[in-house]
Amino acid sequence: MEVGANLLSAPLAAMATRLAIDLACVIVLIRVIYYRTYRRTDLFLTFFSFNLVIFLIAFVLNSSEMSMGAAFGLFAVFSMLRYRTEGISATDMTYLFLGIALGLMLAVSSAGPVGLAMTGGIVLVSAWVLESGVLAKRELGPPSAAGALTSGSLRVAWRAARPIDRDS
């Protein structure tokens, strides 16, 4: 009951400010960066709910006596979660991890609103730069046939699969 009492005694304005910054960052991360690149909406609920739950748990635990080791342990447990019923790509796991990291950082940081916004902004700019292809050109789609034929095993399979010319 002490943790719940600490939540009520915490300044609600500070929590509302942190939550607003967190939600703004996650909306930009998921709706602007992720959606514009991948055009998928099936994981929106997952990304937003993980972020919100991590933020609320970390904020409540941060308002009570908790060591940084316990905070990072909580982060590690939630970041290792994985769906067993459906395969999730490495890219989707990365965005899930970024949502979890944003929720944790913005809930437990001792920075003020400007520092929190800058922290979220650094994560967002980094994600945008990496997704935009500024640093490296992204390859979407299957590899080309010419590139596949340079592999020895694929070249042998290609030769075995081609029709035999019986006239020569």
What does this structure look like?
The protein has 168 residues and is an all-alpha fold. It has one domain. Helix content is 71%, strand content 0%. The chain contains eight helices and no strands. It has helices at residues 2-9, 12-38, 44-62, 68-79, 90-108, 113-132, 145-148, 152-161. Helix 2 (12-38) packs parallel to helix 6 and helix 5 (90-108) runs antiparallel to helix 6 (113-132). It is globular. The termini are far apart.
Name some characteristics of this structure:
mainly alpha, single chain, 8 helices, globular, 168 residues, 0% strand
Low-confidence stretches: 144-162
User: What share of the residues does DSSP label as strand, in percent?
Assistant: under 5%
Main β-sheet: number of strands, strand sense, barrel status? none
Radius of gyration in whole Å, from Cα?
23 Å
Question: Fraction of residues in helices?
Answer: over 70%
Mean pLDDT: 75
Structural class of the helices, strands and pairings? mainly alpha
Give the domain tally.
1
What's the order of the H and E elements? HHHHHHHH
**Number of helix segments?**
8
Q: Give the total of beta strands.
A: 0
Q: What is the 3D form?
A: globular
> N-to-C terminal Cα separation, in Å?
88 Å
Summarize the structure.
The chain has 168 residues and is an all-alpha fold. The chain has helices spanning 2-9, 12-38, 44-62, 68-79, 90-108, 113-132, 145-148, 152-161.
What's the helix and strand layout?
Blueprint: H1 2-9, H2 12-38, H3 44-62, H4 68-79, H5 90-108, H6 113-132, H7 145-148, H8 152-161
